[in-house]
């Protein structure tokens, strides 16, 4: 008797598995993955609360159209702006010798930060297909150059199992140090030393909006690479 | 039927045959083993009388002792785990390094903090080797050495290493078993109870005395600079032991002799990197880690090394950072942003959770084409000149001689490009000297001991439990698995019943 029940249970479990397993194979999160979103870059940023401070900055600086004209935009999250506000505040408190000086997002001079925002925008489209390991050294919309690199990583992988390593996109500002200038063009990249590179890892890459490509910088990025410029 | 019968006979035959072969083989073995093909003296053992006959033997043995010391200090990254993590310098990322993250909060026990941090057996391997040298090298005639001074040097180095290892252990575990003779026969190895730390320090100071009389300042062979002990290394150790005992008047005198007679000088801050590569003019004692000698620290494959404070761009292909600096600790400590050390020791320190420590970032790639298999080529600094200068300043301050302490403190500050100290004397100055140490020796395995010695740990690591600190829990518990080999061992008082 018990044996019969056991067999019956096993058989029904198998049957259940078979029917369930047949449904919707190869789907992630309810639909197949698509990189395209049917919105402009600006509208897409508005849909995600991680970017609401960024959207506010873009609104107040009137850069919405420039953002949608950009082929590539490296978006940064609320965390990056918060870090910037805190660091800037701490710096001013020391400089003005007033340890109680309030400094919040409202205190930012947004007009002066317009060009800083432009340094995250690029005219051309840069995706995983055309970014290289050595990197593209490209002029952003504010005239400064930024380095974009696609770099293999050994994080979370086992070299004996993975024949090809996964790759991260890095967004890098190169600063001048004594004896080491900022390279005028990509041929001089070889003489850059590690200490000059202020790298930021992208947490999400290759979102294709109707107006361009969107990469999202990691939450540990600080807006404008502020105060890492040593 | 007939066939069946035949089969049985055949099986029996096979059985007999096997027996015969076995007997035959045994006979063969018996006859051939009479031919004395075995060497009675093992070729590579240091434990028989065959060894320790020549100066070369002694030199190889001391090199082996240094190699063992290197391996215990690097093993499980213990030099930094014991010396740096509990001070609060780091905010280890628990998602990437769950084993070391609790240690930042002073949690020396728990789910992820393991017996490998509680176990001292590897240290006794170093001590066994050193005790063997101390027991046997004096019996080698001086004429067996290429240079008669070498015999004294090796004996002196062995005493130094013994004192260093015991002192190092006593700062980690407090009371430890004291063993001064080698075990020549495993079957007669003795079980030894833990001696009080004060007894250990007295022995360490006696060993330093012997080491000092056998060693000289400077190096005849420059390739041995700092990576082999000399009289300077001994004095640095002695000053540290005396400071740890709070015998500040003795510490001040030892440090003074070293500073005056040692021949060391501060490197210019333009060459800071050389201090951490090693063998600089201020290096007093270092552990050799050199890629050029094929002895870099490898992390890939079975290299076993660990470089958790570095990621891109300092190690290609390393996207994640296991040990980011503790942002608040660093920002508070290096409040003067003109500090050259802030720029040279850290990378993206202000980006609050991803600051890298780049003091030790001299990386070579064994697989050059794909920048794979990174190898670190930085010596491990154990003692260097500013350490002793600030230690002397600390001693003078405690003795109420602030006027003499000030130039030492300011010399270190000036090298780092920051303003001289202008504050008050006494406790204020004492704190400034401590903070100067914390700034200068960040990630050099010193901070925790400095904070314990000065009694200010809780001011700098707010996560460390006051109950644990005040009740002797700042020393590590010992591994219960060692009790089965040595039934005389008892757990440290604070940790009894907690493991």
From TrEMBL, chain A:
Keyword line:
Signal
Which segments cross the bilayer? none
Q: What is this protein called?
A: FAS1 domain-containing protein
Signal keyword on record: yes
Q: Which organism is it from?
A: Niastella yeongjuensis
Q: Does the keyword Signal apply?
A: yes
InterPro entries in the record: FAS1_dom_sf (IPR036378)
Signal peptide range equals 1-23
């Amino acid at each position: 008797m018990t044996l019969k029940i056991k067999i019956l249970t096993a058989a029904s479990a198998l049957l259940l598995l078979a029917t369930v397993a047949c449904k919707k194979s190869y789907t992630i999160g309810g639909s197949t993955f698509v990189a395209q979103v049917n919105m402009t870059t600006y509208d897409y940023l508005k849909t995600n609360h991680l970017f609401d401070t960024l959207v506010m900055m873009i609104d107040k600086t009137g850069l919405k159209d420039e953002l949608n004209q950009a082929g590539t935009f490296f978006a940064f999250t609320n965390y990056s702006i918060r870090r910037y506000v805190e660091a800037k505040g701490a710096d001013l408190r020391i400089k003005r010798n007033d340890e109680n000086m309030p400094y919040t997002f409202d205190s930012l001079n947004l007009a002066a930060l317009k060009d800083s925002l432009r340094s995250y925008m690029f005219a051309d489209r840069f995706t995983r297909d055309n970014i290289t390991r050595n990197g593209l050294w490209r002029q952003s919309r504010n005239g400064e150059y930024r380095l974009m690199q696609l770099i293999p990583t050994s994080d979370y992988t086992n070299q004996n199992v993975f024949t090809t390593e996964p790759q991260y996109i890095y967004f890098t500002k190169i600063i001048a140090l004594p004896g080491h200038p900022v390279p005028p063009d990509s041929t001089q990249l070889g003489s850059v030393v590690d200490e000059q590179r202020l790298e930021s890892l992208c947490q999400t890459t290759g979102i294709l909006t109707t107006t361009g490509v969107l990469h999202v910088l990691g939450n540990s990025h600080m807006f404008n690479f502020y105060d890492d410029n040593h | 039927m007939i066939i069946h019968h035949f089969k049985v006979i055949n099986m029996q035959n096979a059985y007999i045959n096997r027996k015969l072969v076995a007997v035959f083989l045994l006979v063969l073995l018996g006859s051939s083993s009479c031919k004395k093909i075995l060497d009675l003296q093992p070729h590579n053992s240091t434990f028989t009388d065959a060894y320790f006959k020549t100066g070369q033997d002694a030199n190889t043995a001391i090199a082996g002792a240094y190699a063992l010391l290197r391996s215990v200090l690097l093993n499980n990254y213990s030099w930094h785990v014991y010396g740096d993590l509990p001070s609060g310098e780091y905010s280890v990322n628990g998602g990437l390094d769950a084993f070391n993250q609790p240690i930042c909060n002073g949690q020396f026990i728990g789910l992820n903090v393991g017996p490998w941090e509680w176990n001292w057996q590897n240290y006794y391997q170093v001590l066994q080797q050193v005790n063997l040298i101390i027991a046997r090298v004096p019996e080698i005639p001086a004429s067996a050495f290429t240079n008669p001074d070498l015999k004294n040097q090796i004996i002196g180095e062995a005493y130094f290493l013994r004192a260093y290892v015991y002192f190092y252990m006593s700062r980690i575990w407090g009371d430890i078993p004291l063993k001064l003779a080698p075990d020549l026969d495993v079957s007669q190895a003795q079980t030894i109870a833990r001696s009080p730390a004060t007894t250990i320090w007295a022995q360490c100071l006696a060993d330093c005395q012997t080491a000092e009389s056998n060693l000289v300042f400077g190096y005849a062979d420059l390739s041995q600079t700092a990576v082999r002990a000399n009289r300077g290394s001994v004095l640095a150790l002695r000053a540290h032991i005396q400071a740890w005992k709070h015998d500040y008047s003795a510490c001040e005198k030892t440090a003074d002799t070293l500073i005056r007679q040692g021949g060391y000088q501060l490197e210019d801050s333009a060459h800071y990197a050389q201090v951490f590569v090693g063998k600089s003019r201020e290096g007093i004692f270092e552990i050799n880690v050199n890629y050029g000698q094929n002895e870099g620290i490898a992390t890939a494959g079975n290299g076993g090394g660990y470089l958790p404070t570095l990621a891109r761009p300092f190690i290609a292909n390393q996207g994640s950072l296991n040990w980011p600096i503790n942002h608040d600790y660093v920002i508070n400590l290096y409040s003067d942003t003109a500090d050259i050390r802030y720029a040279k020791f850290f990378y993206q320190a202000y980006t609050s959770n991803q600051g890298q420590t780049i003091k030790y970032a001299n990386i070579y790639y064994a697989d050059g084409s794909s920048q794979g298999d990174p190898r670190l080529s930085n010596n491990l600094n154990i003692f260097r000149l500013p350490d002793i200068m600030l230690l002397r300043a600390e001693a003078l301050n405690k003795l109420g001689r602030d006027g003499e302490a000030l130039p030492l403190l300011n010399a270190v500050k000036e090298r780092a490009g920051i303003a001289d100290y202008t504050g008050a004397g006494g406790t204020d100055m004492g704190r400034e000297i401590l903070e100067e140490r914390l700034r200068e020796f960040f990630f050099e395995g010193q901070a925790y001991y400095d904070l314990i010695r000065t009694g200010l740990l809780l001011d700098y690591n707010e996560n460390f439990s006051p109950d644990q600190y005040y009740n002797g829990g700042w020393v590590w518990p010992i591994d219960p698995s060692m009790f089965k080999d040595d039934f005389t061992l008892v757990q440290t008082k604070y940790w009894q019943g907690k493991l």
